[in-house]
Amino acid sequence: QVQLQESGPGLVKPSETLSLTCTVSGGSISSYYWSWIRQPPGKGLEWIGYIYYSGSTNYNPSLKSRVTISVDTSKNQFSLKLSSVTAADTAVYYCARGEGGAQGPMVLGYWGQGTLVTVSS
Amino acid sequence: AIRMTQSPSSFSASTGDRVTITCRASQGISSYLAWYQQKPGKAPKLLIYAASTLQSGVPSRFSGSGSGTDFTLTISCLQSEDFATYYCQQYYSYPPFFGQGTKLEIK
Is B43's pLDDT higher than 90? Predict the structure, then answer.
């Protein structure tokens, strides 16, 4: 059974860079698309971007200037960096696997449990 | 960008009821529509994709329909574990917007 686990600091200062890693277990990171999604407290879901195991990426235009997603296939991990954060970036951050195939990369069949990142001084 | 609007935003129902949640896209998205269930403090769970295809392991009381701009999620006989928030998501074009969510509460 594929499992995803987010890790990283739970508190980030304004203007700094948020960094999270998602570790995939129970399956290979190869041949799938891997997304980051966030959810501000009490609000809805926002897709941040995805990376294919080969390294190609696609980002939400609303965040594109601040987002970098990378992959380390040797560790079965992928990572998120979000720069110049503000309080508006406070959210639960989820990593997820896109199922690919005929439905493409954005049907998200496996999710991590999520990690709350608070932006505050 | 193609935005998604769900209705209602919340409502109450009883165990055993048949309930329908509606999702409307701002432009046609063919059948590129998924539904997710989220319980408090948990990650979303994929229920349906391609508007009407049930994800493996999801109970058959869940069903989806629609194409183009109008979609529905139906739960045929509510169980206690179904009280949660439901999100639709279009994946016809980027970015893949989610609806604002429909919170299903116990009456």
Answer: yes
